[in-house]
Amino acid sequence: MRVLLLYANPHQVLPVSPYGLEVIRAAVADAALPVETTVCNPFLESLDPHARLLDVLDRTRPDLVAMSVRNIDNAVVACDPLPGPDGRWIDVVDYLEPIAGLTAVLRAWNPHLPVVAGGAAFTSCPVEVMDRLGLDFGLTGPAETGFTTLLRTLVHGDPRRLRRLTADALATLPGGLVRTADGTVHAGPRSRNDVLSQPSTTLPEIAPEYVLFSKARGIPTALRSHAGCPLRCSYCIDPVNMGRVDARPAAAVAAEANHYVERYGLTHFHLAAPEVNLPYERALIDVCRALADSRYSDTISWHGYFNVKPFSADLMDALTRSHCVRPSFSVDAFDDRMLRGHHKNYRLRDIEDTFGLLLRHRPPWMQVQVGVLFGQPGESAATLENAIGHIRRLADRGVSVAYSCGLRVYPHTPLARTPLPLRHLYRASGPVAAAEAAGPAGATGSADATRVIPPAELLTPLVYCEPMPPRELAAYLADRFADCPNVGFIDEGPVKEARMPSWLRPLNVATWHLANGRPAEAAGMARRVLADGDELGIRMAQRLFQEAAATPATVGTGPLVPSAAE
């Protein structure tokens, strides 16, 4: 049986590897099924993703496509105070429209080809994504067990009835979703997240292009420590894993890290968990000790996202021993009332205690990061002033602080189920209240009109921000922090998805060609970078070719042709 693992990720600024799909592929190998798998991200492999997907379909002739939807947008509300392209009010970049283009290609190639959607973004709003993309099958949550169970059923079935077999199998699987003949979506039992406690023996692989991305751009390698989160934050987009946690054995985490060091020469990792120190810091301490005791402890470093609480002296010691170079904390507010509104388990006193401990004992090489949410419900001039004071004090002590101006309202979150004041809601085209007042239904009435936005409408980027629009708030905060070099916007780095330069996609495609032994094609793309690129683009292209030449065995390029040196 031939299966195409389609990584439907249009994001270009930080090309992270399809870790979830590689975990799925490892689980399929572990199950010893007669299945041939191919992983493809058309957005990264060609300037024409539709043509690239069609080429892969013609070459591999898949019996089934498993499509991973990692993000529905880039979640960056305002990357700077300047007006966005075409006068956009927010900088959130919608990914579902280009992903829908891929599903159209699949349908045109074979209308009867079963396409099973999954991934983190799909899990957050599966029915709405199925409707938007025109799909009939889905699998939510960690899918190693579910997908291998599905394949086990299919490989022993009649290929001519594959679509019917897929529907029958998914209808009974935990997390399975099937669209019935009348158009409604039938959901199987609630998906499970207990797959990590029983890890597969086959370790995930990394495609050569992502090895090269990691080395040329410093993108960390994902390393999963646990799944789920015990909190129920107001903006959480993970309805499956909310309130449930499944920890991976510390020895398995360290073994996977060793595998990446030995096979690919990758040494910097991101512990891929919502908050690595929840629900109990003991599990993270065990992982830290396993990394610190591994045979590559001198070369391994890592970072992760932390909750403010719990954070003890024992954990601080474990982070130092395992070389955690960048603990990142999300501090939603510096106000207890607002923290309660987000259903957080910490208060202002906990923030002060944690950062007091952290900053007293951190080694010189450890960079502490904090992300702050501005513009949330209840934000006022007083709460802004209070937060600014706390942030400046942290920045004065060497903490790197990044902030968001507004909250993206995602489907099915507690925030989305709350009646929201229309005057504080914004889309790329402008304020929601103004748009509704100008609509066929006429004015919405009171200036304080509220509405619960239906989930399907929330697939299109919608942002909540008070007491002023996102760009105004961004300009105000940029002015207040103008003398603080450690404080800035939450964005993707020097290159921004909403302001994507023309040279970025050719550079990414050049990386794919270079890593897969096509130096002449890579050189052609590099010439486009040199023609269109600014100083940053040219510098990134030079770094790419230097890294590829230094590690040909890892990325599989072989000697570079002379034109690549241009």
Could you characterize what this model shows?
Its cofactor is [4Fe-4S] cluster. The chain has 566 residues and is α/β, with parallel strands linked by helices. The protein folds into three domains: 2-86 and 94-187, Response regulator (Rossmann fold), CATH 3.40.50.2300; 193-327 and 338-367, Transcription Regulator spoIIAA, CATH 3.30.750.210; 501-565, no CATH class. It is 39% helix and 15% strand. The chain has 21 helices and 22 strands. A hairpin with a 2-residue loop joins strand 18 (425-427) and strand 19 (430-431). Helix 9 (208-217) packs across helix 18 and helix 9 packs across helix 20 (535-550).
State the separation between the terminal residues, measured CA to CA.
44 Å
Strand order of the largest sheet: 2-1-3-4-5-6-7
CATH class of the largest domain: Alpha Beta
The CATH homologous superfamily of the largest domain is named: Response regulator
What ranges have pLDDT less than 50 throughout 5 or more consecutive residues?
556-566
Task: List the domain count as a whole number.
Answer: 3
Query: Architecture of the largest domain, CATH level 2?
Result: 3-Layer(aba) Sandwich
